[in-house]
Design goal:
By secondary structure, the protein is α/β, with parallel strands linked by helices. The protein has 17 helices and 14 strands. Helix 5 links the parallel strand 2 and strand 3. The mean pLDDT is 95. Bound molecules: pyridoxal-5'-phosphate.
Length: 429
């Protein structure tokens, strides 16, 4: 089953991309643990290599199990096609690869996952790419940062680690006016809570490692293309809208239309950069996604209760959860995430850095680790861990100052989650 908009979200989460296997009748998705695929004959092989027919050649480019995950993600996000990658970070490089050339710029929000800031700031320059950071709380900052070299805007819908919500539609309008695609990392929201393409995003990114997999077991990343961007109009995207030398001069946009980006991502991106997702990881992620809606509902309900508990606690200075009426992002949360404000958020301890280091040792049910989006509740003190490599100024800009603790609320009994935090907070006094 491919994209079937006539079905509801929960139905698509279970069925999209995973019809019974036609050769065996297997109801579960087979794990196609194969490197290559036998050609029917020499003509078939030539047609595949020329992209004149769609099929499987070599699993670095495409694989039936990862293709099933791509179809499901495209269906859930309302996109035209998708490319899955070995990790969220691999997907980010793969996403920008057809858009950028040496000397080009991407305008990024300051409030992003710490690892993304790291990648953009220190590794992009090695490709000759430049990331320009702006405060996304004022969407006009994106307009001000545009230059003739700008090739994309990059934001997170619900930004990691703070409970920050980005005004996707406002920034999409500015991207449109600038003639560049808006790339939205939707990892923390998942398509259950927010579908950025409906608000004007061109490309949606995921670290499927998090809520989509949902069990903290399998790395993965994804890019979903809306299929709505005209890659030939401005002349700024020669890899897609011109003769692509990496594919014997093929013009992807002329040849494949709204599938140009998806085809390029496999035929050039994965072929030449190589960060393909393992079929087994795609299979585990597909299994996880069957319960995405149920899990997200519980994740959000638990997070809301924990945020309300923390807001009243004497050891807590502030809570940044967009589901709280007092939160400055509450109005944006109601607009973009009406089913819940996610389950990852931060709070500040009155005891500062020292208390932050102490609380992660004081919890018992929570796991102290650098991940989010697991069924289990997770805690981390970003300033001493994930955001350690950043400068003090970058840390504060990213919402990871010295007193900040990040939680990823799981789907355990909420009384147990609250009780664990309560005993750890009491121990600080
Ligand atoms: C985890 C994460 C990433 C990176 O994904 P990996 O799968 O760890 O490579 C990117 N963006 C966000 C918002 C994340 O939470």
């Amino acid at each position: 089953m491919t994209y079937q908009p006539k079905y509801g979200f929960e139905t698509l989460s279970i069925h999209a991309g995973a019809a019974p296997d036609p050769s065996t009748g297997s109801r579960a998705l087979p794990i196609h643990q194969t490197t290559a695929y036998v050609f029917e004959d020499a003509d078939h092989a030539a047609a595949l290599f020329n992209l004149q027919t769609v099929g499987f050649i070599y699993s670095r480019l495409t694989n039936p199990t990862t293709a099933a995950l791509e179809a499901r993600l495209a269906a859930l996000e309302g996109g035209r096609g998708a490319i899955v990658a070995a990790s969220g970070h691999a997907a980010q490089v793969l996403a920008l690869f057809p858009l950028m050339e040496p000397g080009c710029e991407v305008v990024c929000a300051t409030k992003l996952y710490g690892g993304s800031i790291q990648q953009m700031k220190n590794t992009y320059p090695k490709f000759g790419w430049k990331a320009v950071f702006v405060d996304a709380d004022d969407p006009e900052n994106f307009r001000r940062a545009v230059t003739p070299k700008t090739r994309a805007f990059f934001i997170e819908s619900l930004a990691n680690p703070g409970g920050v919500i980005t005004d996707i539609a406002a920034i999409a309008k500015i991207a449109d006016a600038a003639g560049v695609p808006l790339v939205v990392d939707n990892t923390l929201a998942t398509p259950y809570l927010c579908r950025p393409i409906e608000w004007g995003a061109t490309l949606v990114l995921h670290s499927t490692t998090k809520f989509l997999c949902g069990t903290g077991t399998s790395m993965g990343g994804a890019i979903i293309d809306s299929g709505k961007f005209d890659w030939s109009k401005s002349g700024k995207f020669p890899s897609l809208g011109g003769a692509e030398p990496a594919y014997h001069g093929l013009n992807f946009y002329e040849t494949f239309g709204d599938m140009a980006y998806t085809f390029h991502g496999h035929a050039v991106g994965l072929r030449d950069l190589g960060p393909s997702q393992a079929p087994f990881n795609a299979w585990v992620t597909m299994l996880g996604m069957e319960t995405l809606a149920l899990r997200m509902e519980r994740h959000c309900a638990n997070a809301q209760k924990v945020a309300e508990f923390l807001e009243k606690h004497l050891a807590v200075a502030w809570v940044n959860y967009a589901g709280l009426p007092s939160n400055k992002y509450n109005a944006l949360a109601k607009k973009y995430l009406p089913l819940g404000a996610g389950s990852v958020f931060t709070f500040g301890l009155k005891g500062g850095y020292a208390a932050g280091v102490k609380i992660v040792d004081g919890v018992e049910l929570f796991s102290h680790l650098a991940n989010i989006g697991d069924a289990k509740s997770l805690i981390i003190h970003p300033a001493s861990t994930t955001h350690r490599q950043l400068s003090d100024e970058q840390r504060v800009a990213a919402g990871a100052g010295p007193d900040v603790v990040r939680l990823s609320i799981g789907i355990e009994s909420v009384e147990d989650i609250v009780a664990d935090l309560d005993q750890a907070l009491r121990a600080l006094a």
